[in-house]
Amino acid sequence: xxxxxxxxxxxxxxxxxxxxxxxxxxxxxxxxxxxxxxxxxxxxxxxxxxxxxxxxxxxxxxxxxxxxxxxxxxxxxxxxxxxxxxxxxxxxxxxxxxxxxxxxxxxxxxxxxxxxxxxxxxxxxxxxxxxxxxxxxxxxxxxxxxxxxxxxxxxxxxxxxxxxxxxxxxxxxxxxxxxxxxxxxxxxxxxxxxxxxxxxxxxxxxxxxxxxxxxxxxxxxxxxxxxxxxxxxxxxxxxxxxxxxxxxxxxxxxxxxxxxxxxxxxxxxxxxxxxxxxxxxxxxxxxxxxxxxxxxxxxxxxxxxxxxxxxxxxxxxxxxxxxxxxxxxxxxxxxxxxxxxxxxxxxxxxx
Length: 351
Hints:
about 350 residues; alpha/beta; Peroxisomal Thiolase, Chain A, domain 1; eleven-stranded mixed sheet; 11 helices; globular
């Protein structure tokens, strides 16, 4: 296996409703990350993009994003109809095969383009579930209820997660939800989809995230303290909700095992927990001790959730903790689909 490291991470400014086109959102982020790593476009062997056509309402909308990468020099590029974290995985595989040495991956989404709670229903079973148009929030409420009834999660724990996320958001200028509130105050709020309250749900955003990753022979040229990818794996659960135990995540547990999460201490965990109960389910499934691990120091997806970029942002934020020397070993995670259906997990180390 080739040693591969994340050497640069940039995220665009998250907004609640931008008037910019996807290309206009991506261009400055690409420019900035190339400058951050001190590389030229010609130094990038492979470009990979994650986005979702459902969000823009037109097929092959991702093709226009290539305009943001420039017409020259010719490039080798690819696209995944997923969060940008899966673009990172494809790039990692491309580097492992020897077809590339340096890759730039990015994810972008405009959550304000429509009713994403309804649009994402199209990802569900097209015969049995999607025609009912349940909405993702209702499905996640079902998952939260299943976890509470199974004793996996409590409403107090969910409120504690939100309270901590809002506290940490104070140190992150790129969030949409902020203002510390204690758990008791949060529990007094009315439910919007039993047992979820408004603060248990993500702050939807328009945004972009980008990462540059490269091999050992170039990593130290681009970054003083690279975040080495020591393990990475992704798994998927049944699409049929009735065939899954929604109080846990088997795919996250399996991906975590193969990535080697529990082989050593975890200093920092950046989990793509878009709903408050997700963090608790994921930590239990992945073997992460929330009492000894710094959980989502960025505030996480609860305080800023740019669809198709938020998962990649967790990888970038975990790498940032390595860059700064705040952690020696970090876990990055991204999820896709209803009730944590698909999960990708990576272990990042600073040496």
